[in-house]
Amino acid sequence: MSWLVHDPNSARQMVLCTPRWRPADVESLEHWLREVRRAARLSHPKLAPVREIGVQDHWPFVAYERGTGRTFAEWLDEHPRPPPGEVVGLVCQALEGLAFAHEAGVVRGDIQLHHLFVDGDGQVRLAALDIVLEATLVESDVAALPSAGAASALDHAYLRMRRDTAQRDVLSMGLVLHHLLAARPALDETDLGCVIARMPPLGRETVRLPLATPCQITDALRAIAARATNRQPRQRYLNARTMWRALDGWLRSEEQQGSPPVQLLDRLRAFGHLPAPAGGGTLGYRLWGLEARHALELAEPILRDTALSLELLRRVNSARAQGTDVTANGPVLTIQRTLALLGLDGVRQAAASLHAWPGPLDDAGAAALHKLMDQVRLAAFTAQALRPPGFDAEAIYLIALLQNLGRLVVKYHFAYEAEQIEKLMQPSVPADVGVGEGEGQGMSAEWATYAVLGVDCESVGAMVAHHWGLSDEVVHLMRRLPTNRPVLNPDGNADLLRMAASAANETVDAITQWPAGKAAAALAAVAQRYNRTLGITVPVLLQALNDARAAVQGDAIPLPAFAGEARIEEDAAQRGQAGEPPAVEPLAPGSAAPN
User: Fold this and answer.
1) Least enclosed by CB within 10 Å: which of 121, 186, 189, 545?
2) Rounded alpha-carbon distances, angstroms, from residue 438 to 119, 424, 441, 523
3) Residue 434: what pLDDT?
4) Does position 545 have pLDDT exceeding 80, yes or no?
5) Rounded CA separation 339/141 (Å)
6) Rounded Cα–Cα distance for residues 15 and 126 (Å)
7) CA-CA distance, 316 to 308, in Å (whole number)?
8) Mean of all residue pLDDT scores within the chain
9) How far is Cα 97 from Cα 244, in angstroms, rounded to an integer?
10) What is the pLDDT of residue 585?
């Protein structure tokens, strides 16, 4: 509880905060005072400094100087249509302070809009840390507290309770974000504690941003808000730092308008875009003494090296070779033309610039990146098999590769975040959504990436491409066709190449991202999407996959088996007729609605 009071000694306004319940006994009161004094020692620009701690009539209180600050509720009254960027900026500041407190072992437990102050300069401060911990304990019927310095059987339960309280803080900040974006409280309830009590696992209510909001909200920000108040507790943000990173990523991407965030730029400079292949970059050594070889013979091994192929595209499309603009006649999208423009010395320099495998990744991260690179190469060879007659095989291979640039960069430079994304895409167990409600659906790949990074993988790839200096024409080719829109007739050869590469990537996603029971339907959905424009059928896709698998397995590193392959072939054989609708409801990869 909070009151606005006047301090006669200092002649200033103060904010007086107390717990919702009075401590039950002297021991509980002493514990409360000890915890609040410990929290008051924290010093951070986003935490309100404590002016006084005391007890009046057995009611403990903490006093904060109000100064020019207004509560978030007052600020919202003055800004009934707040811009999303301003809202996110305020919430990021509050999360920064909350993350600092949590990492110092201090929790809040009952965040409300009147515990967050914003001054005239837009600086936010969070007040009343650890003030409701005792009330939470009393309400939970914990009979005793571990005394200072004592190691009791309650210590583990006590620490677990504090962890749960910290997660409740993060959920409260998600509800604050919801309130500010929607300009109205969630579930029409101003007390966030009451809202939390109505949400799973305690209740059955669902909190979602309304479709109509005072200001337009992007899909990325809506995905972050959706995760922050997700119906499935395991899919919510579990710590303040993670939620802050997602919102900060969204905010920076909006402010910088396509430029990579500083964190990504630093990692690109330190570790490159991708490491050399596992095995020590043998291709770089094989290039010595090959001046007499034909460009076609050199292009094939280079094309199979994903990191080197991307590095060559970067160099040839973003630099001037010998004072001549090499992209004057359009973007360079073949290795043979790259060899002609850069020469063998340029290829050697590019190979030597790659960082050794696996860069900063640990064994698990390296294995995940290796698997993704295999899948990307499978998609690129599938694109070659699906390309329309008369189109260059190298060009469509590299376009399909570039359409996965963002995914590769995220997997390499943000391994921990990539793991979070994969977890969010997994269905939840029934216990997460309540008894009798069945299994909860995981997020789509796009919305899971939004919820973790604040941007989607395609945007990350486009940011890297712009940073490299690639043309807008290349960036356009890098963007896959949206899976939630119908496939229209291509507008020129460039769109036709983009379309075929998108079909190949969707095909590989269908057999790698879905379990065996749904992979056949997902593959059939891809065939239906592209049948009219590219003449693709399920047998055509299966043949293209088989040709691509044979090409990839010709590399030194064998391709792992993919889920659902046998089921797909069996399903296609049973249908028999090309273009027949799928036996079950089609599920295109990445098209699942957000939770």
Assistant:
1) 121
2) 46, 17, 10, 26
3) 44
4) yes
5) 74
6) 12
7) 12
8) 83
9) 10
10) 37
Q: What is the DSSP letter of 47?
A: B
Got the DSSP string for 362-393? -HHHHHHHHHHHHHHHHHHHHHHHHSPTTS-H
Q: Which two tokens stand for residue 527?
A: 């065939």
> Using CA atoms, how far apart are residues 120 and 71, in angstroms rounded to an integer?
11
Strands 124-126 and 12-17: unpaired
Sequence-distant (6+) residues with CB within 8 A of 58 are 22, 23, 29
Q: State how far the Cα of 556 lies from the Cα of 185, in Å rounded to an integer.
A: 58
Angle at alpha carbon of residue 220, lines to 217 and 221, rounded to 5°: 50
Residues 4, 64: Cα–Cα separation, whole Å: 10
In what order do the strands lie in the sheet containing 59-65? 2-7, 12-17, 59-65, 50-56
Please, which residues have CB within 8 angstroms of residue 274's CB and are 6 or more apart in sequence? Answer: 306, 307, 310, 354, 373, 408, 409, 412
**Residue type, position 329, single letter:** N
CA distance 335 to 569: 34
Q: Residue 486: is it exposed, middle or buried by C-beta count within 10 angstroms (0-12/13-18/19+)?
A: exposed
Task: Report whether pLDDT(54) > 50.
Answer: yes
* 309 phi/psi in degrees, rounded to 5: -60, -45
CB distance 208 to 593 below 8 Å:
no
Inter-residue contact 502 to 348 (CB < 8 Å): no
Q: What is the pLDDT of residue 436?
A: 37
Q: What is the pLDDT of residue 264?
A: 86
Q: What per-residue confidence (pLDDT) applies to 391?
A: 92
Query: Rounded to the nearest 5°, which phi and psi values hold at 461?
Result: -60, -40
Mean local confidence (pLDDT), 172-186: 96
Lowest mean pLDDT, pick from 88-102, 148-162, 352-366, 497-511? 148-162
Q: How confident is the model at residue 400 (pLDDT cuts 50, 70, 90)?
A: very high
Residues 395 and 333 sit within 8 Å (Cβ to Cβ): yes
Cα distance between residue 431 and residue 310, in whole Å: 45
State residue 296's pLDDT score: 65
Residue 132 — pLDDT band, cuts 50, 70, 90? low
Q: How far is 195 from 175, CA to CA, in rounded Å? A: 8
86: left (phi over 0), alpha (psi -120 to 50) or beta: alpha
pLDDT at 150 over 60: no
Fold classification of 68-256 (topology level)? Transferase(Phosphotransferase); domain 1 (1.10.510)
Answer for the pair 274, 408: CB distance below 8 angstroms, yes or no: yes
Residue 131's pLDDT is 73
| Banded model confidence at residue 319, pLDDT cuts 50, 70, 90 | low
